[in-house]
Amino acid sequence: MQTCNQDRLQNKITAFSHFGATPKGGITRLSLSKSALEARAEFCNRCKKLGMDIKTDDMGNIYATIKGTENLPAISMGSHIDSVVQGGNYDGILGVLTALEAAETIITEKIKTRHPITVIIWTNEEGARFDPAMMSSGVITGKFNRDDMMKVKDIKGISFGEALEASGYLGSASNRLSPSKQAAYLELHIEQGPVLEAEHKNIGILEGVVGMVNYEIHTVGQSDHAGTTPMKMRQDALHAASILICDLYDKLSKIDNELVFTFGRIISSPNVHTVIPDDVRFTLDARHKDPAIVQKVVDVIKNLPTEVVKCQVSSKELWARKTVNFHVPFVDIVEKNVNALGYTGKRMYSGPGHDAQFVADVLPTTMIFVPSIDGHSHCEEEKTDIADCYKGANVLLNTVLDIDKAI
After folding, report:
1. Which residues, in sequence order, are bridge partners of residue 266?
2. Which residues contact 158 (CB under 8 A, 6 or more apart)?
3. Does residue 226 sit within a domain?
4. Which of 129, 162, 298, 321 is most buried by its number of CB atoms within 10 A?
5. Which of 295, 321, 347 lies at the terminal end of a domain, its last residue?
């Protein structure tokens, strides 16, 4: 078994934590911002020193490649370097840095591979500056229209196209990820949840990404004065919404113990403390790997009453995604290497979305998870122990080498 260099990996993590650093130890590194461009430049400089060939495509995705001994499509690995506002130093970037460390190990240890080995940085995965999330991998895999994405603007009115043009990373569409150029894709990521740590597992062996639905539920009543309207005469839209939330919580909790659901956003109008709310909208996000379970959630929503406490009730789907299953032979290789390295692993599905779920439509793909301390992510407290980062890098490296031999 081959192993990476833990000290070298720690150096990478520390170095990149300075780009967009926040006072409380996290980062704000929005896509194509100054700090994101600084991180990209550091990545490219390190790759050039290793003798890697660097290309960018028409979405600004970066491909840094080691030549193989044969004229074959590349085995690719990577993730993203952009963050949410006041995010952490591991989400996305750890997938890039462990991939870079695996590539550096292949180069410094003079390991010969038949396939080229490519490290990818995906542009605008978080969607924190430009909506939607996973924008560039979505364009590359045909989920989103490029022209539409170029027009998306941030809160300052700067379009994605303008930011990409100014970044210096606008490349050619001919460099895009495709089955003719890549043979496989692997993505290491932090779990962003508490399960691996709670179960004392070193590695998450990802079988796929769970399907989900997101609905907005709308209640409409009548605004009146809070001090003069008798309770029995009110049409309180927030009261109606609270009844629905409690009812939904009770019904969904009984469907399946692996179903997760969240009432994540509530908008109450007119949102004045002396006025009875007349218009309330709340969202319901539900996720499960089994499409039949997700359909049961939809059925519950569709069967909501049309009127609650004299308020009108309606619902609409905001978005949905189907469960994505990763390439089983690659999943098995990951598990084999977890065991061979003496680590503990757990087969699991991802709740959050990742670029890998889009790539899985066009390339054989899988993912590797490492634990998140206390389950924290998308916050400044986000952290993964370096020993777990190192173990993840070793699994990634050996999986790449095994795939190189197998395909």
Report:
1. 282
2. none
3. yes
4. 129
5. 321
d(CA 129, CA 12): 25
For the cut 90, the answer to whether the pLDDT of residue 179 exceeds it is yes
pTM assigned to the model: 0.91
- 208 strand-pairing partners: 325, 349
Place of tokens 């109450």: 268
The Cα angle at residue 249 between residues 247 and 252, in degrees rounded to 5: 105
Answer for the pair 212, 321: CB distance below 8 angstroms, yes or no.
yes
Q: Could you tell me the CATH number of the domain that includes residue 267?
A: 3.30.70.360
Question: Which ranges in 184-310 belong to alpha helices (H)?
Answer: 195-198, 237-253, 291-302
Distance CA 57, CA 171 (A): 4
Per the DSSP assignment, residues forming a β-bridge with 209 are 324, 350
Please tell me whether residues 106 and 236 are part of one structural domain: no
- Give every CB contact of residue 298 below 8 A, 6+ residues apart in sequence: 213
Q: Are residues 114 and 262 in the same domain?
A: no
- The strand pair at 211-220 and 182-190 is best described as unpaired
* Residue 286 contacts residue 210 (beta carbons within 8 Å): no
Q: Do 288 and 386 reside in the same domain of the chain? A: no
Residues in the chain: 407
pLDDT band at 319 (very low <50, low <70, confident <90, very high): confident
Which residue in 187, 192, 198, 12 sits closest to 88, CA to CA? 192
CATH of the domain at 374: 3.40.630.10
* Average pLDDT value for the chain: 97
- Is the Cβ–Cβ distance between 57 and 176 less than 8 Å? yes
Q: Write down the pLDDT at residue 346.
A: 98
Residue after which a domain boundary falls, among 258, 287, 321: 321
One domain for residues 20 and 81: yes
Cα within 13 Å of Cα(289), Cβ side: 13
Per-residue pLDDT reduced to its tens digit, 246-255 = 999 999 999 9
Give the sign of the dihedral formed by CA 194, CA 195, CA 197, CA 198: positive
Q: Do 206 and 185 contact (CB within 8 A), yes or no? A: no
62 part of a folded domain: yes
